[in-house]
Amino acid sequence: MRTLALFIFVLASLTNSFAQLKGKVVGVHDGDTFTLLTQDKLQVKVRVHGVDCPELKQDFGRVTKQFASDLLFGKEVVVNTTSKDKYGRAVGIVILPNGRSFNEELLRYGYAWHYVKYDKNPYWQRLEDEARKQRLGLWKLPNAQAPWEWRKERKKKKVK
After folding, report:
1. What is the pLDDT along the chain (160 residues), one digit of tens a residue?
2. Is residue 45 assigned to a domain?
3. DSSP classification of residue 1
4. What are the residues whose beta carbons fall under 8 Å from the beta carbon of 109, sequence distance 6 or more?
């Protein structure tokens, strides 16, 4: 009986790993991370799939957080999870109440880099390229630095 219960638990956790989450956004941490309060009253930290926004201490970080807050905070959204990251956050594609993809809005308006290390969607790359061309959002900055490069530099400075 114990083996059967364990099997059901493992099977349930595997099938729910890449599920659809629905709920209200109750916290926005930065441009690509927020907290969702599910219909079951569980708080789930969500990392937006396929994009990387400036860190809060980086140029344009606070502006990007405000953009995310304006679109997400207090809204009912759907998250189509794609994975979990190393911090245990659900990673996914976020659908706004108007049916648009939050991931795409970040790219379309120049608030994120397409994170090709984790996503190969050519359409999303075109959205970033078009925002760069039009100098939207962070692309107004003369020397916009990718967040993964910024984090790497900060890590090196801490080691010294």
Report:
1. 444 333 333 334 444 457 999 999 999 999 999 999 999 999 999 999 999 999 999 999 999 999 999 999 999 999 999 999 999 999 999 999 999 999 999 999 999 999 999 999 999 999 999 999 999 999 999 999 999 999 999 888 777 6
2. yes
3. -
4. 67, 131, 136, 137
Given 62, 89, 126, 128, the catalytic residue = 89
Where residue 109 sits, what CATH number does that domain have?
2.40.50.90
Q: Is 154 a catalytic residue?
A: no
55 catalytic? Reply is yes
Residue 99 lies in a domain: yes
Domain count for the chain:
1
From the candidates 2, 55, 108, 132, give the one annotated as an active-site residue: 55
Within 8 A by CB and 6+ apart from 159, the residues are none
Give this prediction's pTM.
Answer: 0.87
- Does residue 47 carry a catalytic annotation? yes
